[in-house]
Amino acid sequence: MTCPAELGALDESRKRNSVPVDRSDPVLLDGDTWQSYFRDFQRSAFRLEVHQTYTMPAEAETVRAFLAGAEKPRDFNASWHRTISDHAAAGRAMTRAKVVRRPLTPYSRYLFEWCVPGNVAAGEDYRIVDVTDRPNPGLPEQDFWLFDEATVVHMHYRPDGTQAGRELIRNPDLARYIAWRDLALAHAVPFERYTRDLS
After folding, report:
1. Is the dihedral of CA 101, 102, 107, 113 positive or negative?
2. How far is it, in rounded angstroms, from Cα 150 to Cα 172?
3. What are phi and psi for residue 128, nearest 5 degrees?
4. What gap in Å lies between CA 124 and CA 26, rounded to an integer?
5. Quick check: helix, strand or coil at residue 129?
6. 47: β partners
7. Residue 195 burial (CB < 10 Å; 0-12/13-18/19+)?
8. Residues 105, 110, 112, 115, CA torsion sign
9. Which of 104, 140, 160, 172 has the lowest tally of Cβ within 10 angstroms?
10. What is the pTM of this model?
């Protein structure tokens, strides 16, 4: 049985972890408009990833190849690596925190073996928040990008991991998103250290 005090604490926890809802008409991003956010940010781009599987049509072939035991192509993700390295050379930070639960899903294994090492080598600060043996530290169940601590884009996904849209959040509570970023990074370990300990 839960006492009133416990119910109050639970309500407060849910409020802290809940994602603000923008009840105006959503602004959905696609194509060059979406790509421009990665070209034009001036200081920082942060991504929180909370899902264990992402089912992206553009990755379907390479995921199948990875799971079949193929070797990673020599130029895999080269254009994205150039984007990261160009920003790093200009002093602009790209940081990502991924929430992980073990055992790793096939997609996470693909990500860790084929995708993330190249991103890190190019200059992305990629970190892991492992919640297998501990509770969620207070992060939302919502993927998002935070650009320059000023612009928030929600990444929406269906239960099977397919993307349902990218939504620009109008008038976001920036202090909350910055706090979530800082919380994620405070509970994260660098990718290379995490995978070394994992093996």
Report:
1. positive
2. 9
3. -120, 130
4. 30
5. strand
6. 96, 145
7. middle
8. negative
9. 160
10. 0.89
Cα→Cα distances 187→23, 44, 135, 181, 183, Å = 31, 20, 11, 10, 6
Amino acid at the residue 26: P
**φ, ψ (nearest 5 deg) of residue 96:** -140, 140
Q: What pLDDT, in 10s, does the model give residues 120-158?
A: 999 999 999 999 999 999 999 999 999 999 999 999 999
First to last CA, the chain: 42
Tokens of 190: 């660098």
Quick count: other Cβ atoms within 10 Å of Cβ 123? Answer: 17
How many C-alpha atoms does 43 have within 13 Å on its Cβ side?
Answer: 6
The alpha-helical segments, DSSP class H, found in 41-173 are: 60-67, 78-89, 106-110, 116-122
Tokens of 42: 């001036």
Place of tokens 């997609």: 107
